[in-house]
Every structure is written in structure tokens, then in C-alpha cells.
Specification:
mainly alpha, 4 helices
Length: about 110
């Protein structure tokens, strides 16, 4: 009998402990908000540092030029053009559906 009582107490304690450690939707929302704030601050800091440091500005300009060159070469490939066209079609379908459907709420 004592053994069953001890097991029941332990199980209740573990259940309460597990329930108290469960993440809540509120906690998740708060973390997502904080995540966005930190990402924005990092982006702003990167921009500031690139503006202030000539070496970083020069490197950034080179990277952007290479990125542009690569994008042009990729987009000239037929297979990539097909995928781009498909993406544009899907984007348009999404926009059309969004106009027809009511906006989602936070909790959905």
C-alpha cells in the first residue's frame, strides 16, 4: 500500500513538473517577436559597419557585383527560367486567393 501511495505521489509530482515546463503559445509568440527584433538589429548593425569601414564597403561592393553576375547567368538558363515562371504563377495564385479569403488570425 505504501508503495502505491509513493508511486502516486511521484507520478503527480512528475506530471506537475512536466506541465510547468511546457512551452506556452505566449512564450512562443514572445520569442518570435524577440527573434525578429534581434534579426533587425543585426541587419541594421551590419549596414552601419559596412558604411563606416571602407574595407568592408569595398568587399560588400565586390560581393554584390558577383551576386548580380551570378543571378544574370543563372536566369539565362532555360531550366531556371521555367522555375522562375512557375514561381511567378504560384505567387499570383496566392495573391488571388488572399484577396478572396478572410485574413488568418494569430492563433491559426
Amino acid at each position: 500500500m505504501k508503495t502505491y501511495l509513493m508511486l502516486a505521489i511521484i507520478c503527480c509530482g512528475m506530471t506537475i513538473f512536466a506541465a510547468s515546463n511546457q512551452p506556452t503559445r505566449q512564450t512562443l509568440r514572445e520569442l518570435k517577436i524577440e527573434q525578429k527584433k534581434v534579426a533587425k538589429k543585426m541587419y541594421d548593425l551590419r549596414k552601419k559597419l559596412i558604411k563606416e569601414d571602407p574595407a568592408l564597403a569595398k568587399l560588400h561592393a565586390k560581393i554584390m557585383e558577383l551576386h548580380k553576375e551570378m543571378a544574370l547567368k543563372l536566369e539565362s538558363k532555360k531550366s531556371m527560367r521555367i522555375m522562375i515562371d512557375k514561381a511567378v504563377q504560384i505567387d499570383q495564385q496566392v495573391k488571388d486567393l488572399e484577396k478572396k479569403l478572410p485574413p488568418e488570425t494569430e492563433e491559426e
